[in-house]
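Hello,

Our lab assistant flagged a job as stuck in the queue for most of the afternoon. It eventually completed. Since we weren't sure the result was trustworthy after the delay, we are filing this so someone can double-check. Below is the sequence as submitted and the structure that was eventually returned. Let us know if re-running is recommended.
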Amino acid sequence: MIRAATPADVPALTVLIQRSARELSRGFYTDRETESAITHVFGVDSSLVADGTYYIVESADTFAACGGWSRRRSLYGGDQRPVGEPAELLNPANDAARIRAFFVAPEFARKGMGRLLLTHCSAAAVAAGFTALELMATLPGVPFYAALGFREVEAVRDILPDGVALPFVRMARRLDGTTFESDATGAHA
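-- returned structure --
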């Protein structure tokens, strides 16, 4: 079952995000990179919860996954450090909706929870008038998003406040069946 997250869910979501990051980032990020990301990047963005666009996948009363989409400019980051201007709204006519903060509980990894969540978010973005999606993928997320039709736009290194350089990959996908033309951002056709 998928449902919108509420403010009361944030503590449990924080635990899920930390567990997911620590377990599923192994082999992609060092322990230092993962812990720095948990401190400075990986977390709930309460603006998504307030907007009703951050969701929880539940399985037998357990949080199996979380993630959302946004019509706001921020591309990634949680309350502790959003990247981009969260107050600025995107224009569906020429901006891509953002896919944000996807995390899967380790025991539910590779069981279709992320795909279910992405399908739900994509449908909501289409209903809001968007024709493309954009996201900042963690290294373990790149194969998942690539398998679902996202293409790599650029490699990014975010220098976190503690000096750790964390690699990400900005990715994008059309929702209207067309392909991206060779524009600079990959976010528009």
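-- support follow-up --
The delay was a queue issue, not a problem with the job. The result is valid. Residues 2-132 form a domain with the Aminopeptidase fold (CATH 3.40.630.30). The first helix runs from residue 10 to 24.
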